[in-house]
Amino acid sequence: MILTLVLLSIGALLFLVIAYNVMQQYKQKVASDRRATVARYKSIADEAEAVLLNVNLLPFSKSLVLILQHRILDAYRAIAQASPGHVQIKQRIQDAQAQIASVQENYRSPDDGSFRPPESDRQAIQMLQTIKKMRAVLRVEHNKGKIDPQGFAHEDRRLELMLLKVNIANLLQRAREAMNSNQFGSCRQLLAKGLAVLGNVSDKDAYLIAREEDLRQGLAELDHRLQSESQKELQNIKDKEADELDMLFQPKKKW
Fold it and tell me: What is the DSSP secondary-structure string of 115-176?
């Protein structure tokens, strides 16, 4: 009888230990999943905020700015749901809501002519990365049904043209540097490439039309430079031949 009680006690103790371990593992998994969820949504909010910081470099429409702001708000709300005790999350939600209200009331979509070319290679890379991230966000929000197909197509095309503008501006700068360094072959390749790309664009705006004309003028200037260099080189050869003839037929000195 005593042995039976001991065995039952041991069995009950083992059951309690196993149950405790299972509960601990479950709590750890829940905590781990919660941390992963918070980290994922925080990353979404941080990325959207990083894109917003560069809005001053690019003419983003009001719709795009609101998409970013709502994405931040949705991320904060998801964090609050996953981790109700998260510090300062309520204040961040309020701040995001205030930002959305401010954009809706005060933000005016810039026109396409307000595009400013990059001032350096570093800024060009920054602008390209920002546009690519914005296009990725736009696709995600469209897949969620938060933007209609027509609006998505319009905004995505505007972003695609922004990418082209940055690349063409950068190409023109490199072509000028190549011409100034007398790298005429590289200069011609760059200018011809830019014209070929723009020739396939049917919906060019005023900025791209002006850059297309710059590319044509660049090619004309390059041809003029090459013609001038060829004439100069030919004249140098003639001068050298004349000097050699003068040396050959000059009177010999008498000693």
Answer: ----SSHHHHHHHHHHHHHHHHHHHHHHHTTSS-HHHHHHHHHHHHHHHHHHHHHHHHHHHH
Site of tokens 């080189």:
233
Give how far the C-alpha of residue 66 lies from the chain's centroid of Cα atoms, to the nearest Å: 18
* Spatial distance between the Cα atoms of 146 and 99, rounded to a whole number of angstroms: 19
Residue pointed to by tokens 């994922």: 40
Amino acid at 166: V
Q: Whole-angstrom Cα distance, residue 190 to residue 5? A: 91
* pLDDT bucket at 112, cuts 50 / 70 / 90: low
- Per-residue DSSP letter, 154: H
Q: Classify each residue of 127-139 as buried b or exposed e, where b means 16 or more C-beta atoms within 10 Å of its C-beta.
A: bbebbebbbebbe
**CA 63, CA 69: separation in Å to the nearest integer?**
10
Residue with tokens 């002006």: 210
Distance in angstroms (rounded) separating the CA atoms of residues 48 and 42: 10
Predicted model pTM: 0.77
Each residue's pLDDT tens digit, 139-183: 999 999 989 999 999 999 999 999 999 999 999 999 999 988 888
What 3-state DSSP class applies to 39? Answer: helix
